[in-house]
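re: that chain from earlier
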Amino acid sequence: MTEVMTYDERHFLEVKALWQEAFPDDAPWNAAETAIAEKLKLQPDLMLVAIDGDRVCGSVMAGYEGHRGWISRIAVSRSHRNRGVGRDLLAEAERRLSALGCVKINLQVVESNSEVVEFYRRSGYRIEPRISMSKLLRR
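^ sequence. v structure.
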């Protein structure tokens, strides 16, 4: 049985390894050293980990800017997939966002990642007709 809890610095190395497994071709600005440090500056209680025994088996970052909530960087180790870990992480992130007053959550998925798209569909998320745009401010 896994437990979802707020991230703590002691989880860093395991989350970093998890992200390397889950996001092997990720951009440098998404590196754990950068992303987690920045997340902990704002709403650290929305950086969550799933623990099985004493090991990290999943993580998610959520955020709320007063208008919309966001889910990002959700990852579950291969050894724990299809066991409800992602569902539990998502449910706790949604619970915490709702407690802040959030009424709508957005997220982005790489279009070709059909397995993850289906996970979110089963969790009640729907595809909206939007265009996702970005601008890199620094490298």
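The CA atoms of residues 108 and 132 lie 8 Å apart.
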